[in-house]
Amino acid sequence: MSDTDLKICCIGAGYFAQFHYDAWARIAGAKLIASVDMDLEKARTTGLAAYSDIEEMFANETPDIIDIITPPEGHLEAIKAALAKDVSAIICQKPFCGGLEQATIAVELARQANTLLIVHENFRFQPWYRTIKERIEGGAIGEVLQASFRLRTGDGQGPDAYLDRQPYFQKMPRFLIHETAVHWVDTFRYLMGNPDFVYADLRRHNEAIAGEDAGYLILGYDNGQRAMFDGNRLLDHAAENLRNTLGECLVEGTAGTLELDGFGNVTERKFGETEKRIILPAQSYEGFAGDCVHALQSHVISGLLNGTGFENEAADYLKVQEIEEALYQSNETGSRVRLE
Description:
340 residues, alpha/beta, Rossmann fold, Dihydrodipicolinate Reductase, domain 2, 2 domains, nine-stranded mixed beta sheet, 9 helices, 24% strand
C-alpha cells in the first residue's frame, strides 16, 4: 500500500459483494482495509479486518471510501454514518436507498457535507454499451430512432426462484423494474438521454414471488425516439452464461443497426446491407458481466486521484428513480405518464 492509495471499507459481504471485493483488489490506487456485515463470519471470510457494526469499524479504521453493498433498507443509515466521519466518497449499490424519498434525503445530506455520493449502477460501464455509445457518437448508424433490450435471465421459474443467490428477491413488492429494469433505464439514458414520457405494462407469472417478473416498458422522447425494455425473468436467451449480458439489445439508426447478443458480441450492419460486422467480439472477462463492477470502481478511483470526473453521481441518479416511479404509476393507471 502506497501513501496515495485510497483505503476502502465495504459494508456488506453477501452474494453480490464478492464482485466488489474482487474488483477492489485489482485496482491500482485502492486498498481494501475492512469489511462490515451483520453476520460477522461473512465479514471474516473476506480476510480483512472484520466488524459486525459500522460504528465499531469507524472506531478502529479510517477509510477514504465507503462501499455500501447491502439491501436497500440499510442504505440511508449507512450513508449517514459515513457522512458523519467525513470520508472522501461513498459508493452505494442500487436499488438506491430503496426509493425516491430516502434517496432524495441521502443526496441532500451528501450535498450539505460536500461528500461525493455515487450510485453503483454499473451496466452503463459494460464494454458492449461503451462500444455502442462510441459508435453512436461517431455517427456510425446515423440518427438513432429506437433501441430495445430483451431481458431473458431464465432464473425466475418455480417456488425456488432466486433462493440460491438472492432470496430477498422473492419478497420484493416491486421487482422487475425496481431491482432489474433500472439498469436499462440508466443505460438508455446513457445512450439516448432522458426520456420525456413513459409507459409500462407489467405482470407476474411466478406466484412464489411478491412482485412483477415480466413486462414491457417504453421510454418516449418528444423528438420521436423510443426505447423499449421487454423483460421476462422466466424465459432464457441464447448464451453460455445467462448472466453475462442478461439478454439481447438492438439499437437502430437511419444509417445502420447495432446489435448485442448473449455472448457479448456487438455487431454493426449498414443500412441496406445484409452483412453484419463484429465490432466487439465476445471474450472472457474477469468479474461480473463484462467486468463492469471493476470498470465503475476504477472510474471512481480515477476521478478522485486524477480529476477525470464522475458518472452516476447520486444527485443525477435521482432521475432514474423518478422514471421508476412514473413507470409504476403508468402500470397502475394504464396510461402514458409525462415526466417533469
